């Protein structure tokens, strides 16, 4: 499905969100700033937008991982055009079986990807495994507004307007029907924080964005020293 829409993915992300997705990504990267990460892993990287945005933190290396070859090819073209090959590497792989050793990365990011995991709990445990002690995970994901009238407007747009626009531009109606369905099934808010805690993360937080349309979740893999202090 993602291979099929790769050629229009970036355009539709920006168009359907009225460009707000760029601001959400900047906020997500901002969560990492005080950690000064040198090695960053961006899971479900797609065409690499969040990986590219993370370069503002001046890391030594950013690795993007995604299961879709079509998405990665578009991302590699983008990275080549920007001359960023030395800083960013895009690899094909499964986020639920991350092909790296334990304690490998200073920070892990995900934008609009965790709701697509087949086994969400396994994916979160894998993030915890490859993250260094003291490292941070920052996850940007859609959520469902709970307050009137945004709740009703959001439902109408997501269920009635977005699928038609997505189908028109991408020629794949199933992808943009899947989007609202996957958002509706995702365990957002406190439920997702609970899953992060079960995976081993602590110091959990959530920032609700744009009246509840999206949220940024963060968690820390406590170092042994910090655990003793607690």
Essential attributes:
230 residues; alpha/beta; Rossmann fold; seven-stranded mixed beta sheet; 10 helices; 7 strands; 45% helix; globular; disordered C terminus
Low-pLDDT sequence parts: 225-230
- Average per-residue pLDDT, rounded, comes to 87
Strand order of the largest sheet: 3-2-1-4-5-7-6
- Total of DSSP H or I helical runs spanning 4+ residues: 10
CATH superfamily grouping: Vaccinia Virus protein VP39
CATH domain class name: Alpha Beta
Helix content: 40-55%
Tell me the number of structural domains: 1
What does the overall shape look like?
globular
- The total beta strand count reads 7
End-to-end span in angstroms?
45 Å
CATH topology: Rossmann fold
What is the C-alpha radius of gyration, as a whole number of Å? 17 Å
Main pleated sheet: 7 strands, mixed
Oligomer: single chain
Task: Determine the strand fraction and express it as a percent band.
Answer: 15-25%
Name the CATH architecture. 3-Layer(aba) Sandwich
What letter string, H or E per element, gives the SSE order? Answer: HHHEHEHEEHEHHHEEH
The structure class reads alpha/beta
Describe this structure in words.
It is a single chain. This protein has one domain (2-143, 188-229): Vaccinia Virus protein VP39 (Rossmann fold, 3-Layer(aba) Sandwich). It is globular and about 45 Å long. The protein has helices spanning 2-5, 9-16, 20-30, 49-53, 69-82, 120-130, 150-170, 173-185, 190-199, 224-229; strands spanning 39-43, 61-66, 88-92, 105-111, 131-142, 202-209, 214-220. With 230 residues, it is α/β, with parallel strands linked by helices. Helix 6 packs across helix 9 (190-199). The longest helix is centred in the last third of the chain and has 21 residues, at 150-170. It has a 7-stranded mixed sheet, sandwiched between helices. Mean pLDDT is 87; it is low at 225-230. A hairpin with a 4-residue loop joins strand 6 (202-209) and strand 7 (214-220). The termini are far apart. The chain has 10 helices and 7 strands.
């Amino acid at each position: 499905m993602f291979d099929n829409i790769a050629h229009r993915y970036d355009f539709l992300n920006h168009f359907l969100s009225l460009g707000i997705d760029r601001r959400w990504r900047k906020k997500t990267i901002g969560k990492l700033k005080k950690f000064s990460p040198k090695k960053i892993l961006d899971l479900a990287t797609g065409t690499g937008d969040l990986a590219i945005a993370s370069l503002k933190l001046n890391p030594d290396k950013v690795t993007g991982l995604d299961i879709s070859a079509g998405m990665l090819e578009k991302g590699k073209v983008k990275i080549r055009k920007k001359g960023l090959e030395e800083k960013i590497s895009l690899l094909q792989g499964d986020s639920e079986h991350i092909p790296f050793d334990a304690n490998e990365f200073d920070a892990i990011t995900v934008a609009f990807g965790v709701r697509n995991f087949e086994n969400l709990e396994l994916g979160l445990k894998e993030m915890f495994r490859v993250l260094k002690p003291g490292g941070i995970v920052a996850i940007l994901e859609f959520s469902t507004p709970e307050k009137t009238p945004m709740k009703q407007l959001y439902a109408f747009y997501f269920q009635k307007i977005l699928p038609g626009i997505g189908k028109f531009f991408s020629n794949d109606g199933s992808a943009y029907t899947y989007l609202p369905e996957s958002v509706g099934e995702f365990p957002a808010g406190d439920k997702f924080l609970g899953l992060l805690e079960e995976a081993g993360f602590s110091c959990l937080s959530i920032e609700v964005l744009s009246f509840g349309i999206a949220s940024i979740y963060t968690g820390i893999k406590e170092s042994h020293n910090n655990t003793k202090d607690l």
